[in-house]
Amino acid sequence: MSANDITVELATEGATLPDWWMLGNGRCRPASLLLDTDFTTGSHACYDYWQGGAIGAISESLLGGNRARIRAVFALPSGDPRITTVPEGTHVYSFKAIINNLKSSGLAACAGCSAEACINLTLIQLDHAPEAGPIIPLTNPDVNQYVTWQGWSNPNPAFGCPAITPARSQSWGSIKALYR
């Protein structure tokens, strides 16, 4: 493996994407979408294939209405000795997409920080040298492929996030009745 090509879809509540989610150049929060492929510190639950050496970029494009696409491409430099095979069954870190909180409050705040959103990982493509065989697309997650922001109550399955039902308070008696 020498590179990863990532596609993430973003949807928010309402008909249009709020300014707070406008993360590209010339938009409300141009410095708020960051790519990080450095896993040399922190949790070591998975294999750190990149070993702090990957280079790349991340960007957002608007899809219209309340949707956007985030793309990231990163790789180890050509000829890097860290470019190797990944043993089958090995869990590997790929990337961290960081959406920071700049312009979330105060006079220069961008509207829409409190809007519900669903962020859905749709593709991780594992790239390598052509002689190594076909490029490998990963589309089936081990656990979840989405995260939500401020909850998510939109039942549209096309967004990849299920509707989230708020918890309701119950009395102790009603809970005990379930087990009688």
Protein model, in words:
This protein is mainly beta. The protein is 3% helix and 31% strand. Strands 1, 3, 4, 6, 7 and 8 form a 6-stranded antiparallel beta sheet that branches. The chain has a two-stranded antiparallel ribbon with strand order 2-5. The radius of gyration is 20 Å and the shape is globular. It starts with a strand and ends with a helix.
Summarize the structure.
With 180 residues, the chain is mostly beta strands. It has one helix at residues 172-177, and strands at 3-12, 33-36, 55-64, 67-75, 96-99, 117-127, 136-138, 146-149. The protein starts with a strand and ends with a helix.
What is the secondary structure topology, with strand pairs?
Blueprint: E1 3-12, E2 33-36, E3 55-64, E4 67-75, E5 96-99, E6 117-127, E7 136-138, E8 146-149, H1 172-177
Antiparallel strand pairs: 1-4, 1-6, 2-5, 3-4, 6-7, 6-8
